[in-house]
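Q: Hi! First time doing this. I have a protein sequence and I read that you can turn it into a structure. Is that right? Here it is:
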Amino acid sequence: MNDKQVFDNKVLPFHLIFDQLDEGIILVKEGIVVYCNKRVSTILDYDWNKEIPLLLNLFPEEKFEKFSNNIINYKPGNTELFKFNHPDLKGNLEIKVSSFEFDQINYTSLVIKELAKAPIIKDLRIEYFSELIPFILLETNKDGQILAFNNQFEKQLNYSKNDLKDCFTIDTLVENTRKPLIEELYKNVNKVTSKRKIEIQLKQKSGEILHTEMYYQTKMENSSFDGYIFLFNDVTQNKQIESKYYNNQQRLRTVLDLVPHMIFLKDKDGNILLANKASADFYKTTTKDLVYSNISKFHKNIPEYNRIKSEDDEVISLKIKKEWKNSILTDNDSKTHVFKITKVPFIEPESQQVHSLGISVDITQQVQDQIEMHEAKEKFRLLVERGSDGILIMQENKIVYANRQTARIFGYQLEEFLKIPLNSLINRNRFKKVVDAYLQDSQNKDFGDHYEMKIQKPNDGFAYVEAKVSIINYQGIKSRLIFLRDVTKRKLAEKSSERNKNMLEQAQRIAKLGSWEWNVQQKTFYCSTEIFSILEVPNDETNIRVANWMAQFIPTAERRSIFRGLIESLNSGNKYEIEFPIVSKNGNRKIIHSQSQVFKDSKGNPERVIGTWLDISERIRLDQVLKEAKLRAEESDNLKSAFLSNMSHEIRTPMNAILGFASLLKNRDLENKVHFEYIEHILQSGEGLIKLINDIIDISKIESNQLVIEKAPVRINDVLNQIYNRYDELLLIEKNENIKLNLEKAFPDPDFTVLCDSYRLQQVICYLLTNAIKFTPKGTITFGYNIMNSELIFFVKDQGIGIPENKKELIFRSFGKLEGPQRMNKSGTGLGLSISKSLVGLMEGRIWFDTDEGKGTHFFFTIPLEFSKQKIVQKKELIASENKQIIELHEKTILIAEDELLNYKLLETLLKKTGAEILWAKNGIEAVNIVSNRKVDLIFMDIKMPEMNGYEATKAIKQIYPDMPIIAQTAFAFANEQQYILQSGCDMYITKPINHIEVYKALNSYLV
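A: Yes, that's right. Below is the predicted 3D structure, encoded as structure tokens:
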């Protein structure tokens, strides 16, 4: 038998696993190939059915140079990495070489990974260096020297080929502030992501700056970095347009903020989304209180509120603009005002929700000023004929008088105008609304109101007309005197101003950007609404007095430097930009980014300064949060890596003992004493492994908020006595005579009973005691409890090695373990104290410690002191033992639904002792079929099975036999999974690993 056949027989169970790998595996002994998986034949292109060739044949020199000789001369103990990119190979190869010992023989292992071939840079040049595209293209070597460029380079930067000398590199073109970025590209090539877009400024030959967007890609030659290909897109014109747009927005904001009318933006429920200062003044409140409140909170007149709500609903539902010429609104002082209201639908760009955006112009004073009665007929006639307003007198909806200005407003000669009915001159719907409004005003005896209407002229033009109505006695008859004024220009200006103001206010509000203007010559100062929001002060005129009004919110230390910079800007005329903190009126600290620009008059003297305040507090906070999150993530990653490394050791240690002693038990020549000793070792290692798994399950339950504290009456002193006896016996068994254990009780009464979770309480104390014993080479460990301020204070004090100062923060963290010279051989998962802290928190307590390195540690934790009035009932449990008679079930049939053979064999062995007939179903479908055709008295149902799981099988069986006892056997650990087992119809569940006592309890409950 050759080396290959010998090795194949030894690794035969692993063939199927190795053949599933994406990497090729080759094992070599003294230059001879003893094993290859199937992936090797695909990568190296040889016939798998033939005999595996020699290593020299697998890696010929024409493709792999001296690689075979290097492997033959390879020295064990090192790990080397080789890369090959020969054109005859299917792809680039990466081969990792290492050594290992198997069956006392040294082997060399080759792990072959196939990589995609890198693109050929010459092909990319053809694509990237086309002379037809309008972008600047450059190619550099690995030192940044420019090797090639297209015609746009000469055209846009004005350089010629003669300008490019040997020392002309890419950073020569880049504006100074961006040079470090280019230098970083060439220093950290391995971290570069290709084809990124970066804004960068290039210098033309004349020295002018060209704003561009830069894209780049690395060049590779023989798998090594060989330079970059750059593409630059000219965006200079876009930058200039952005600057002009920003300046226009600032001017618009200055104009729009002067509008004194009420402006509201409301949603369909009447919630105020936007309101200006005029709106807040009307309701005697502030914009801060007004915005995001409901209009019903402020408008107390119920009929008026219902009318406002109806108007908003109509605008939102129909998505049309609506106007109300004479709307009466009552303020909080019960004073009525007349408003001209215009509302339009406003659609949110992102959510597409429709809101009502309205402007209300208070025209109360205008109406009052224009209600005049002219007793003298002559004076009235002169005023009418010479006035610029149109005047109508109507009796019973008929025109009995009109001046020439009225006819001109409507686009007619007076004689022609008097022959035309008034309702044909005005839109009928609009005319009807005006008449209805007037009639309503008349009934309320609130004369003198005015109305706006849009009229159609005979030449297809239109005009906005404002009508003011008064009641007079004309020719002995009660008549209506109507003054008409052409307000077309004003109306159009209002609409434009309203739109621009709305756009600017929304932009500033969204960006948290406020603006201010200081007129140096007139000594006036103005700031926008958003400034008040940033400073958290009411937006009223008393706050805008002098230029340094906002300085009161700037800390003194920064205030002087800001004023010095502003004065310097006034003298030089340069733009001034700075970041500084402020403290708002409510005491909130914010960070402001401020910019200002000085504007001079025709003589060159400073005329005014316009500036902005941008609240960047949230951005800075988020930056800090991201930095802290990154640090936490890195720290957590390090802890978890250490934990996984430790877990590998902690799991392998008991598994090694279990597998090792189980293998030794195959020897039939063992003495009974040695036989039982080996079994005891296996059981102890298994219990240790279960404890390890339970720790992991507990931390998982805690992190997923599924661990529940169950309170019940507990005799505290009994619990502590049991723990003392357990650990005292443990120290005796381990022959640890260097540690003395003491127990101190604050209340010695054996019946001292409180409400708590006994299991979790013991778990925390045991974790602390285990740690104390582990880290105390010699000395006394004292544990117990005290009572203080309605709390039980438990403590564990040792005289061990203590905790270093720099490790204190790790103590209660998951996966955290103390490492050091004195702790190298201490086993553990690093979860005990983390679980303890979480358990104490769930029990509504707290945990802490005092420590002195080299002298010991003192742990404390508390739970609430809740006395129990209930008496503890001693439960008698059914305990099956070797000496107790086995339950007799000779006439019973038990079905085991289990897909794992060993699990079935374990249950079968336990149940055969009862004399019952045992049936086996390997999945849920077989279990349902057996129950349908055989009489079964009880079922042990595994939850996780193929084809049909235990949940589905239980539901199907319960539909046929609702009273059939079904005992679930599960490895699931979480409370919600256990609850789901019972909800699916199972009568009881036992957890894996299966305990024979639990099995006999189930039989006793349902079959005896």
